[in-house]
Amino acid sequence: MKDIMMMRFIIIKVRMDQHRASLCAKLTDTELASGLSVKEKAWVAGVTSTAALETTSTTMSYFLYAMSCDANIQRRAHMELDRVVGRSRIPTISDMDSLPYIRAITQEVLRWNPPLPIIAPRRASEITTYQLKLRLFTIYMDDWYEGHFIPKNAALMLNIWSMNRDKDVYGPNVDEFQPERFLESFDISLNTGEFTLKAEYQNNDGHNAYGFGRSNTCTTF
Fold it and tell me: What are this entry's molecular-function GO terms (predicted)?
């Protein structure tokens, strides 16, 4: 992993010498990277350049697999797009509230097969942090959560896969791909395709695929 990050850093430095600027290149600028070691610069550049690549491609693969397994879901999604967007343009973010079935599919893909089933360990820490130059410091301390004692520096393994398959939340058929679980009303008729997203999911992802804490699972979908 160290070699991968260092190689990415070297590639970015070469591009800078060729005057091919990028976000990662800016992160290696002397002024912005003040106080960081070469290894830290390599990790910043490497993580930034790889964020959302494999997680997004993995999610897209699960989406395509789910669509290939159920032609009816494809038809309903296509019908909603034709009704709301038409065929003369592509959807935009302003269409989101008018595409409840597409949103339900997106939520179900991330619930059904999250790109990272178990995310990187977390540690109990004090909320208050302070910053010196570009370094962010956190004070680790003991904590309590719903009657459970969490000693400082204890590693917390977060099983997103299991959380997204909670039968008390999603029903008994948690292993099946069913966007309808996020819909308030579902018209099975392929001739109308009128759907309504459940109220609790209007402003709620309905899954834990994005992770927790300051460092999330970078997914664009």
Answer: heme binding; iron ion binding; monooxygenase activity; oxidoreductase activity, acting on paired donors, with incorporation or reduction of molecular oxygen
